Structures are given as C-alpha cells and as structure tokens.
Amino acid sequence: MTRESIKNLARKYGLHVQIGEVNESGLDFATAAGVDETGKRWLCRVPLRDDVKAGIHREKQVLQAVRPQLSVEAPDWQIAEEDFIAYPLLSGVPAGTIDAEAGAYAWQLTVDPLSDHFIETLASGLASLHHVSKQNVAGAGINLRTIQDVRTRQLERIGEVKQSFVVSEQLDAKWLCWIHDDKFWPSETTVIHGDMHPGHMIIDDEERVTGFIDWTEVDISDPAIDLVGYYHTFGEVELRRLLQAYEKQGGPLTEGAVPQIQAWAATSPLDIAEFAIRSGEEAYQQMAKEALEGQD
Length: 296
Description:
Layout: H1 3-12, E1 17-23, E2 29-36, E3 41-47, H2 50-53, H3 56-66, E4 79-81, E5 84-88, E6 93-94, E7 96-99, E8 104-107, H4 116-129, H5 134-138, H6 147-162, H7 169-180, E9 190-192, E10 201-203, E11 209-212, E12 219-221, H8 228-248, H9 258-265, H10 268-279, H11 282-293
Antiparallel strand pairs: 1-2, 2-3, 3-5, 4-5, 6-10, 7-8, 9-12, 10-11
Helix pairs in contact: 4-8, 6-7, 8-9, 10-11
C-alpha cells in the first residue's frame, strides 16, 4: 500500500488529501493521515483483506450508535466504502504505537508509573462505554448476547480451532474449567470495544484519554475483555489501580474481576489461531501451533 494508492482512493470518493506515512502494522487495515486543501486533517483506512470489508457497514452503524453515549471521542466516518474509510482525525495521539523493529510499544506517555490523568480518564471512558445501551447497538447489527451465550461461544471457539490445530491437554482443561466455573463470570454482558489496547487509546498532551479508535471488534460480551490488553501491557498492579478508578466511575466491574481478566488473557492462543485460519498467513499458522501446543 503506497501513499499514491491511498491518495487515489480518497480522490475516487471526493476527498482530496496529501497523504503522510502509511502504517501497515495493523492486522486488518493500512492507515495514513492526510491533509485536505483547507488544512483539515483526516485518517484514511484501507482494508487489507476481503474478510475485513464485510464488517465495514456494521462498524459504521455501531459508531453512530455509541458515539453520543461516550465520555470520549470516537471516529465520525465521513466516507465508508468497502475499499476505503476516512474520518476527521481525532485530536491527540495514540498512547503507544508498535515499533516493529523493536517488537515493543513506542510510548507517548509515562508508563512507570502511569499518570493519574491517564488512569482516571481511561476509567471514565471505559465505564461510559460499558453503560452504552445494548439495544441501540443491537439495532446496528450486533447480536444481543447473555453471559451464558458468551460462555457457550468459548466452547464453540475451542471446537472450531481443534478442527485445524492440536490443543494441549493442559490448555484444553484450563479453558474448560474456567468456562464451567460460575465464580469467574459476571451476571450481565455489556457493549465492549473488543480490541482495547494503547494503540487504540487517544491521549492529549497531559496524558488524558480523549478518544477510542478502531472499533472493528465491537460486540456485546463480557466487559472484562476490554481490560485484557491493558493487563497484558501494564501488569496486575496497574490493572488493579485502573479497576479501582473504573469502579468509582460506575463501571460494572470491581477489583474482584482480576481473575476473569487473567483467564481471558490466557485465551490468546485461540485469538492467534482464529486469525491464522481467517487470514491463511503461514507465520500466524506457526505461531498458533506453538501457542496451542504449549511450546516456548
């Protein structure tokens, strides 16, 4: 994907922009910032695979439903076609971006420790998201699910992955124990972002979270899922700190949700395997094989 090809796609839909550096580090979309003739800044997204295109209309509808109910910004798609998306760039920058060479985040915030501004505004944004009306989002094409539906779906995911990969007995037993143990599970589902990590959190120059981007995985499910990326990145101490602030903001999870968040984190081999099956990419096939068989 080149600057010129994105510029041409934008022009095809009436948007005349000068394109900056193209970012293809994401799994689903190539992205690039652009500036139009008036100086307005845009974010352009181009799907990298055909299976991604099928969700574009749904994501646009969901954004229209959730944006008025959030305490933070979310993208306002002005162009949403199967081969091109564009929206006015949100103010601020991602909290972290993946440095492909280093294999780690390049940070735009202080991480040791995380600032109170970051924690409190992230907690507020997540709490507002998890109180978004499920009925509104269901009207945008998301299935209403109960917690029992979510648990059943995890059993189905394991079965589907086993059709393509070998799963170690230890990992299989761990997942089944978690799914069938009532003490892990909340009583209600909520609207979730589904792919919440520092690259999808927009912050200002005082490290306040001002927006959430990339809503491709939005769903109605267990709200603990939206804390998994944070746990993977910052660890348990910072997770407990965030949960304390989140609960004060009225979020439906308490500090007692830590084991559930850790249990969801342990399903990452399923995520890798599902992407490998969906994309057919050999590198992810090997990653999935190693993760599911318990290889280091």
